[in-house]
Amino acid sequence: MLKVLWMTSVYPSSRKPGEGVFHETQVQALRRLGIDITVVCPLPVNPAPLRLLKKKYRTIRQVPDYEERNGVPVFRPPYTALPGQLKWAQPHHRIAKSVLRTIEANGLHPDVIHAHFAMPSGGAGAVVSKKLQIPYVLTLHGSDVNIYPHYSRSAFQAFKTAVQSAADVLAVSDALKEKTKEMSGIDSSVLPIGVSLERFQKPSASKEELREKLKLPKDQTLIVFIGRLVREKGVIELAEAVRQLDDKYKAVFIGDGPEKQLIRQKAGEKAILTGQVVNQQIAEYLAASDIFALPSYSEGMPTVVIEALALKVPVLSTAVGGVPGLFGKHQRLLVRPRSVSALKEAVLGYTEGGKWREDIAEELYQTVHAQYDAGRNAEALAKRYENVWHAATKQLGS
Which of 22, 36, 99, 376 has its CB 3.0 to 4.6 Å from that of 303, i.e. a possible disulfide? Predict the structure, then answer.
């Protein structure tokens, strides 16, 4: 049985079940294929002097150091973090030390390392790979290509090192593949994570029944957002857009993050903030909504868009990352980022202008089933693990 060590900065926990769900989806799909997966998700901890200096630097550990989730060991070792580190003090060596301590302390013997996000996990993966002489695979997700490398010269170099050191590089969209080639000279392969389509079925309850269960208003048009409540996700523009719409519209924000208070200030009672919800309820919230909105400034290939399309829920997204490729000939429905007026106009186009039609929903549903099934994509990933491991074994034997 092939043993794979996953390195990532986000993975669901008992305390935060909605964080990094797309990773757990792929891990479970790989487990069903007989791959032995261990997850290491290092957590940043600010040094003691900084914790004394400012309250915001006092890290409150909200997740367990170790837990087994659905048969998968998940370790969360600490590493020393510095404010703004992805801009000027790349943490990959500190993360690598934390991962190496975890490997040694727990007697782990992986055949392959799979790092997610070039920064910071990819850079750490390159260090661990070199130290242990184990090949590593890198998956690029979006912000690690579109945002972080452009912070500084050291950040760009960290990105290039992570990509150029990997035995195999995967990108979740064609747009990321092209940009990675342009930035690093390295060819990657497109392999989205997708969703577990056999498990992500439309709830049997009606929209009205779901709204009653979830304590959502029954007589209003609901625009649902699911994700981190950070400015880069366009949540402030969405809050302002719903404020400007008439009183029959409300926005439901599912998730947590620093912009929660500003969303409330912008939209008042027209914003419903649920906090994080368990993954099993995501389908219910989507099916209970009239529109799913993702007004992000940048993305890779957002899993929640795939989930909404799998339920034939109208999707209103910005034209970022892999979304235009997914929408294909229907990408005219997408809007430009950072625009309240574009969002507002698009919402009215969906609800009153007939721009979202059943035939569009059906075509995008078929695309999702053909290209974004987590089980099928996990089979492709398992083959890549095997190829990387065989190539490394052959090289060591020669």
Answer: 22
